[in-house]
Design a protein that fits this description.
Blueprint: H1 14-19, E1 30-37, E2 43-45, E3 53-55, H2 57-70, E4 74-80, H3 97-108, E5 113-118, E6 131-133, E7 136-138, H4 140-156, E8 160-163, H5 170-180, E9 189-194, H6 201-207, H7 227-239, E10 243-247, H8 253-262, E11 267-271, H9 273-284, H10 290-304, E12 308-311, H11 314-325
Parallel strand pairs: 1-3, 1-4, 1-12, 4-5, 5-8, 9-10, 10-11, 11-12
Antiparallel strand pairs: 2-3, 6-7
Helix pairs in contact: 2-3, 3-4, 4-5, 8-10
């Protein structure tokens, strides 16, 4: 008589399935991206990202309290300044919008892990991630400004700085700058593998950072390339990165898995704006079970090897995890 394995034995009840589950999503895994707008009186909805707002500083404080009570442990901050200039000076101003938001978050919850996105695109009128000279995004002149921005975030109390600009050499410059200023304990979460993706569309509205000309393909990665991701990650490790990020998440699970197999550092993945908005739109139309879809997505990120998940779904996921625990 032919024999076969009865795999269904371990799927027979919910408790058995829980017992043998290989990957779980925890509150510890989640980082919530938040947008803080200088001069905003309260909060303002982002129309292309239902449920996500820009926050004025007072509203941001109240939201930090609410999220902390919900169990959120980590945020990453993006700033929308009142003034923009060619040198992105608002990015590294001592009383800049992100710097003030760091202080506010720490005042409300000293234990909260406050990460900051380090980039120039929200702070210059041309919307590019580096300095622009004669219509070209120039690499080396951008490095000092990017490092200066990271230093200002660390000085304001940021726990982690996360450069997203994709300029070559920025991790090394940031590490050197932080160390020289006495912030050798501030880790760098590098957007090591950031693709020139169409999935960033709603973020452009959220952060007021659409390029005024051209695109970002000369510095962000070609979506067709995976081996290049390993080169980018290896370079950032050599320059002093403490953690690596893959962005976006859903279409690049294979890249996350490749990094996990190759490198021992903690790996983050960014569940980006259009990935979020597509789920919200489908749920609003009654086409999907939002909770089931989102939790399946979160599990897929963990299964691919991500230790850290940056996601706009974080508050909902925290609530659902709480309900599952009873």
């Amino acid at each position: 008589m032919a024999t076969f394995q009865r795999h269904r034995r371990l799927r027979r009840t919910a408790w058995l399935r829980d017992l043998v589950r290989e990957h779980r999503v925890h509150a510890d895994d989640l980082v919530y991206p938040m947008f803080v707008e200088e001069g905003l009186a309260d909060r303002s909805p982002i129309t292309s990202m239902p449920g996500i707002d820009r926050f004025g500083l007072d509203a941001f404080r109240r939201e930090i309290v609410r999220l902390s009570e919900l169990g959120l442990k980590s945020v990453i901050l993006f700033g929308i300044p009142l003034a923009k200039d060619e040198l992105s000076s608002s990015a590294y101003a001592e009383r800049g919008v992100v710097q003030e938001a760091i202080r506010a978050a720490k005042a409300e919850n000293p234990d909260l892990i406050v990460m900051t996105d380090v980039c120039l695109c929200e702070y210059n009128p041309l919307g590019h991630c580096g300095v622009v000279h004669d219509g070209k995004i120039v690499n080396d002149p951008s490095l000092d400004l990017i490092a200066k921005t990271a230093l200002s975030h660390a000085a304001a109390g940021a726990d982690v700085v996360a450069p997203s600009d994709m300029m070559d050499g920025r991790v090394a410059r940031i590490r050197e700058t932080l160390d020289d200023a006495g912030y050798e304990d501030v880790p760098i979460l590098s957007y090591a593998v950031k693709y020139a993706s169409a999935f960033y569309g709603p973020f452009r509205e959220a952060a007021d950072s659409a390029p005024a000309f051209g695109d970002r393909k000369t510095y962000q990665m070609d979506p067709a390339n995976a081996r290049e991701a390993l080169r980018e990650a290896q370079a950032d490790i050599a320059e002093g990165a403490d953690m690596l990020m893959v962005k976006p998440a859903l279409s690049y699970l294979d890249v996350t898995a490749r990094l996990r197999e190759t490198f021992a550092l903690p790996i983050a993945t960014y569940n980006v704006s259009a990935e979020y908005s597509m789920v919200k739109a489908a749920a609003a139309n009654g086409w999907i079970d939002e909770r089931a879809i989102v939790l399946e997505m979160m599990t897929s990120f963990k299964r691919a090897g991500a230790d850290i998940i940056l996601t706009y779904h974080a508050p909902d996921v925290l609530q659902w995890l709480r309900e599952e625990r009873g």
